[in-house]
Fold this protein.
Amino acid sequence: MTSDLVIHLGDRKTGSTSIQKTLTDGLWTSGSRSLYYTANGHNGPLAHALATGANADNIQQRFTNLGRRIARHAAKADVAVVSSEGFEDVSPKTLKMALEAYLPEYAGTVRLIAYVRPHGARVLSGYSEQIKRGQSVGSLEAYFNDGMALGRFEAFPRLSEWREVFGDAFTLRPMIRVGLYQNCVVQDFLRYALQSEDFALTWKPDANPSLCAQDIAILQEFHRQLDGAGVTPAQAGYLGAALGEQMADHPIPDGRRLQLPEALAEQVAAGCKQDADALDGLFFEGTPMGDALEALKGAGNPPATPPADAARIAGLMGAWLGRL
């Protein structure tokens, strides 16, 4: 009988795709525990409806359908799971009210979990995503300065609200590999959801799906050529995402990870310290977020430049696509 509902809230860039693939494709086994995954891929439409304030009838219908699916599998599942990184944009109060209104049988027992990247990794992943989609072709330093002005790297205000609304039912885990169960976010999530270590994965999740620094530099040149050539932001984003996917599937053999240059690493450590300390104080034993910031200091990382032939190809592709 399903007596437990777990909602996986993300965050973005914390292994959500691997968790969702594992659950959708059933890439795990257990001799004693069972789980019903409520989506094929992810529950993004449900999260989007809550985040955007879709009309009440739309939200009610989505939760009603969710409740029916859970009920159909209740006899053979110990736990049901809802998962979408889109919950990063949802107000905790909005979700709580929806649960009380549409799934009252789970409102008092629901468990929620999110993973949070250290600040340095959050800066790098956000910058990489913006470059890939052509939302920016500027420097990493400019991206960080703009983000600081907008409060983009402050995680505590948003995540502390989840604890305020849901209390101890909300768990936050630091997305730091050595602190995860079996050094794997998928296994860490399954242990939380199943409340058991009696399970095994039947695949090996990708340990490093991020684009390398050379690929990021190539994408910058690609989008510079598209910029101002009559290509709409939506078209540029689609093309960049498609090219980035191909790059990830065919990585450069000697590609190196995108890293913070030394001076910027010092700025990130200083600018994000207050937020890291607040997260450590409320959520964690020890100081994993603060330790991650300290580890940034003194790291001398040169800027990445694309190989000459790759830069030329990226420029030619961008110029050609811009004239179509």
User: Anything to note?
Assistant: The mean pLDDT is 90. The longest strand covers residues 111-116. DSSP finds 15 helices and seven strands in the chain.
